[in-house]
Amino acid sequence: MVSASTKWSLYAGGYAFLCAAVLVRVVAPISTTLMALLNLPESYAGVVLALPVVGIGTAVWWAVIERRNRYTYSLGAAAGLTTALLTVVFWSLAFAVVWDFAILLAGSVLVALVVLIVAPVASVVGVLMMSIRHRLGERLPKESTHAAQ
Fold first, then answer.
1. Rounded to an integer, what distance in angstroms lies between the CA atom of residue 47 and that of residue 30?
2. CB atoms within 10 A of CB 96
């Protein structure tokens, strides 16, 4: 049997993936360029570029939220932001493997632009996921939701 915290971590990873896929479509000029540079089919950019978010988002949500048994909106924002930043790191390393680390230096403005776009969006996504968790999840005793770190 799968625990509730594992289920919520998987839900968070899936939700983050869906939001990331939509965001990739919104920033299509950037995502199609990245796909072309990686020699991947541009028509699948939404799925391919968002795919690592499933695993990263699931692991981050579990580590930041479920394992600590703390369900605050600020931790939700932190989980979303951490997921986004780790995904940017993942794709930066993929580019480094394909093109060499020099491409990261040459494209540092593009990497910074991507971070500036995804960071606030991912924070909001984390807060929204926490809102879903609060509304649909099992209610915890008040002392465990506000416990000190």
1. 14
2. 13
| pLDDT tens per residue, range 64-117 | 999 999 999 999 999 999 999 999 999 988 888 888 887 777 778 888 999 999
Residue 101 in contact with residue 62, Cβ under 8 Å? Answer: no
CA dist 131 and 141 (Å) reads: 17
Tell me how far apart the alpha carbons of residues 38 and 146 are, in angstroms, rounded to a whole number: 45
Domains in the chain: boundaries? 4-137
Residue 109: the pLDDT is 86
Label residue 142 exposed, middle or buried (CB < 10 Å: 0-12, 13-18, 19+): exposed
The pTM for the full model equals: 0.85
